[in-house]
Amino acid sequence: MDITVLGEPRFPSPIRHIVSDSLRVPEQIVRDPQAPPAPELLFELAGPRGFLAALKARILERSHAVVVAAEGAGQDLPGTTEVQRDASGNVKLNDIALFLRERIEAYFKSEKIPIVMRYFDPSYLVRSSPANSEDSILCDLFARQAAHAAMAGKSGLVIGYLHERFIHVPGELLTSRKKRLDPDSFAWRAVLAATGQPERFE
């Protein structure tokens, strides 16, 4: 299903490349949950094999770059380690995109390489977009299943969708572990092949 939250962030991609191709030596920062740097992968900014060196090589070779930063990435980097919590006590993630933007601007300035920055935040695009037809139908089905569960006297669960069936997932099971990206998985290898980025920034 082409759900709105997954489908909408795809639309700025051609726009980003059109903008970057129209400028000389530009660089863009995009905050997007779909692409690297990923939270599960630690990476270094500095150093001959670090992120900034790889970005510099890309800029010099292609005259433009699009950087996509996943929410939660780079929380271990110096300057991003201050822990803040929301009203519920949950840890608030530092904004890696703005942090990278500052570091990239400072790095290229020190290297005397002019760049033009464009910052896109797809989350605002998603929030301002109406749900598409598939999303609307799916949400309606989830709501119906939740109402049926409640009327049956069930609580402490969430509605899931597995093998084309709606299921009841106990809250304890849902919170027992976090879904994490496997850096050695076929899916991540496909991302590396599609983006052409190094396997590690270290």
Write down the overall geometry: elongated
CATH architecture designation of the largest domain: 3-Layer(aba) Sandwich
Output the CATH class name of the largest domain.
Alpha Beta
Strand content: 15-25%
Ranges where pLDDT stays below 50 over 5 or more residues in a row are 1-6, 13-36
What is the name of the CATH topology of the largest domain?
Rossmann fold
- The radius of gyration computed from the alpha-carbon positions, rounded to a whole number of angstroms, is 20 Å
Distance between the termini: 37 Å
**Helix and strand composition category:** alpha/beta
Number of helices, counting only DSSP H or I runs of 4 residues or more: 8
What about the largest sheet? 3 strands, parallel
Q: Please, what is the average pLDDT?
A: 76
Following the backbone from N to C, one meets helices and strands in this order, namely: HHEHEEEHEHHEEHH
User: What is the domain total for the residues?
Assistant: 2
Describe this structure in words.
With 202 residues, this protein is an alpha/beta fold. The protein folds into two domains: 4-129 and 180-195, Rossmann fold; 133-174, no CATH class. Helices cover 40% and strands 15% of the residues. It has eight helices and seven strands. It has helices spanning 4-7, 12-22, 51-62, 96-110, 122-127, 133-151, 171-174, 186-195, and strands spanning 26-31, 66-69, 84-85, 91-92, 116-120, 157-162, 165-170. The strands form three sheets. Strands 2-1-5 form a three-stranded parallel beta sheet, sandwiched between helices. It has a two-stranded antiparallel ribbon with strand order 3-4. A two-stranded antiparallel sheet has the order 6-7. Strand 1 (26-31), helix 3 and strand 2 (66-69) form a beta-alpha-beta unit. It is elongated and about 65 Å long. The two termini are 37 Å apart. Residues 1-6 and 13-36 have low confidence and may be disordered.
